[in-house]
Amino acid sequence: MAEAKTKYIQLASILGSGLIGALLGKWIGMPIPFLLGSMATSAMLSLGYFASTGTRLWFPVKLRHVFIAVIGTMIGTTFNSDVLKAVPDFAITLTAMMVFVAIAQVVNYTIFARIGRFDSVTAKYAAMPGGLVEAVSLGEKAGGDVEALSLQHFVRLILVIVSIPMLFQLITGETVGSAAGETLQRAPAEWQDWLLFLIIVPVGIFIGGRLKLPASHLIGPLLLTAILQGSGVIDLNGPGILVNLAQLVVGSALGSNFARSTPRRLGGAFLLGGLSVGATLIIASGFALVLDRLVPMPFEALLISFAPGGVTEMSLVSLSLGVAPVLVTTHHLFRIVFTVTVAGILTSRAERVGKGG
């Protein structure tokens, strides 16, 4: 009983610090304050707690999964005929995505091997532009440094989540996302909308798990909502407060993952991550500029689609910025599945060659 009480006090501390960071971020005009602000303050709390006690603050994975499902449902509500019209253009953009992944892999491998002095296996899997869990798992299987891979991929996600909204604000000169009062809510949510969320979220999680979909907690509810919304069965108006709440929970969860890192190791990881993410975003911007002339997708949507962030986090960024979230999610899913599939094939081949030798 006492242990359970301690856990919930720790959870309340993380979310409380996250809320403080979110409100501060909103006050100073930070882009996507409920995500970035909560992540910053929960990270500081987690680092301080681990430094003084040697243990991590408790944050339940299931809570994060529920709000990832909420994000998926919110994205599904944006599904409309414009998405179907863009399907023929996917042949161009997804082909370009495969080329992008190959170039990014080579550039990032060079950064981690030459500058970071990683061994070749660790450098190869640290360079993967997508699939945090999969990259670490495959890297471990191939004999790479698991701790280095985990930290480097987590830093990649953080830097992309932070840099994309900042870039939008820098380019436009205006505050973006929820800090500017942007919302996806078309009209005030009725009780029926809240009821539909309570039904779709758990059903979508169940469907995603049974079908073994990639990022199942996000994609299951997203597909279910998109099908129901697109076919006219429902007309779901996502409550705007849920986007902020999802940002708060996901941001606080991300920040709490910093706990086990030392300041020195974090500094080195952020230096390498900054070089890697910076190079990858330059490449992504180049692809977005070219594709902007070939397909009827806005540059902003293309840039977020090619940015090397996690599918959940980048979907949330696009949702918060109001930039074609369904299209962005589709591209990120393809990027991660393609990257992981190729890496898996190469890992299997390396293992067969090793056994044959």
* Secondary-structure element string: HHHHHHHHHHHHHHH
Average of pLDDT? 82
What is the number of strand segments?
Answer: 0
User: What does the largest sheet look like?
Assistant: none
What does this protein look like?
By secondary structure, the protein is mostly helical. It has a single domain (2-356), classed as Up-down Bundle (Na+/H+ antiporter like fold). The protein has helices spanning 2-28, 33-53, 61-76, 81-85, 90-115, 120-126, 132-141, 146-172, 191-210, 216-230, 240-256, 263-292, 299-306, 311-321, 325-356. It is globular and about 55 Å long. The termini are far apart.
Strand and helix layout:
Blueprint lengths: L1 H27 L4 H21 L7 H16 L4 H5 L4 H26 L4 H7 L5 H10 L4 H27 L18 H20 L5 H15 L9 H17 L6 H30 L6 H8 L4 H11 L3 H32 L1
In short:
The chain is mainly α. The protein has 15 helices and no strands. The radius of gyration is 20 Å and the shape is globular.
Give a quick set of tags describing it.
mainly alpha; Na+/H+ antiporter like fold; 357 residues; 15 helices; globular
